[in-house]
Write the structure tokens for this entry.
Amino acid sequence: MSPVRDRGARPAIIPMEGSRPLSASNSLGSRLLRALRGVLAPVLILIVASVGVVGYQVSHPRALSPYDEYVYVDYLAKIPTEGVVRTGEKTGDTARQALACLGVQWYTIKVQPCSGKDFSDDAVYPYQGYTGADIYTPAYFAVTWVLAQPLMWFGVDLVEAGRMVGAFWLALGTVGIWLLVRLLRADPLWGLVLGLVVIVTPAVTWSATYISTDAPSLAAGAWMGCLGVWAWSRYRAALILLPVGAIVAVMLKLQNFAAVGAVALALLVGVLAERSSPQGPAVRRNRFARLFTDGRALSAIAAVVLALAAQVAWLAYRSAIRLPGPGATVDTHQQPLTAYALITESFRFLGSVGGPVDRSGSFAVALSGVLVALTLASLIGLIVGYRVWGVRNLVLAASVLVVALLLGPVLAFFARLTVGYYVPLSERYGLSLLGLFMALIAVYLSAALGRRPVDRADGLALSAPVTEDVR
């Protein structure tokens, strides 16, 4: 008689000769390996590309950047001894010798001899020998000085070492763009491609390969975007870190407030636009009440208020420590702030994405033109076609577009109010928006080319949902 089979038992699986049994550890290891490849590979590519481009540029002898690198070198040199540069202070020998030895691009500068020991003739130096960098907090210069020290231990001079630190700021910005693209559920390949494109823009050439307060702006915008996405998902740490990040961004440079404003506006509009709310029917009927009860809205409001408060505190401190005397007098072409000027400034940062392109060559001009077209197409496409692309993308694109249009007039009006005159703005003041532009381009292209499904959820989910509500 044949044996009776136990119907509840499963037949044994005998592995074929030479094969390895599948185990839970091997499965976990393979998933971990795939995850590491998906994260480490693009991050390493962006870091290596950033270091390579900056290193190549810095290794070639170049004159000082016309975008105030002379006074930035002075600030950097004074970090270990003074910590902060004061209004009415004269530039030191380090910056003056760098100016004498390197000169300034596009300008003919006649100062005291490079090999000399005396650099005390104030009259032959820009601003009559005064510094023009006193408007900045020491945040950027302190971080740059610390990171430059290992290079200086090997004999690299201060100017070259400070320029090389631009690789750190650039890598931080490009990795932030890639991460933001992932968090927005767009194809991460576009994050890698656009991160590499950003590296060769003229904006990065002027900000990351010289000593410049614009160097952290790309990273400030990209990482503020990441904090905004995490805050939307109600991660407790992100709700706290968003205001902290806003303070850091504005302390690095006032113009970085553009990214703070864009992210905060997106969060506030997103909270108002939600169709569902777990906070009860009363709150659902009065959507504006969410601005004072929803943790995400409160975090966004705190980011704006605390960033502005930090800048006001700095201005008060700067005024308190100023030295007697006239200070630097900037020789600029002053203009009246007319309606035409305000309209011109409205499109300043949308008309030259990745700029400035002055004297940057035909490739840089063409690249900036392509980025302008892609940025406008993405912003307008996501807004006009919100029924196709989703309400979430409408909120993001509209918030960034509004801030980009308002930034120029606000900065021009602020300059007119504080210094008494208006000077046409530089495109580099909008550099903190570049990372947000690239992320929205990635969202648009991912959806348009079918690489990622369009997220049209009523809840405006910006990333993977979380279970913890910390409001």
User: Anything to note?
Assistant: Residues 1-25, 457-471 have pLDDT under 50 and may be disordered.
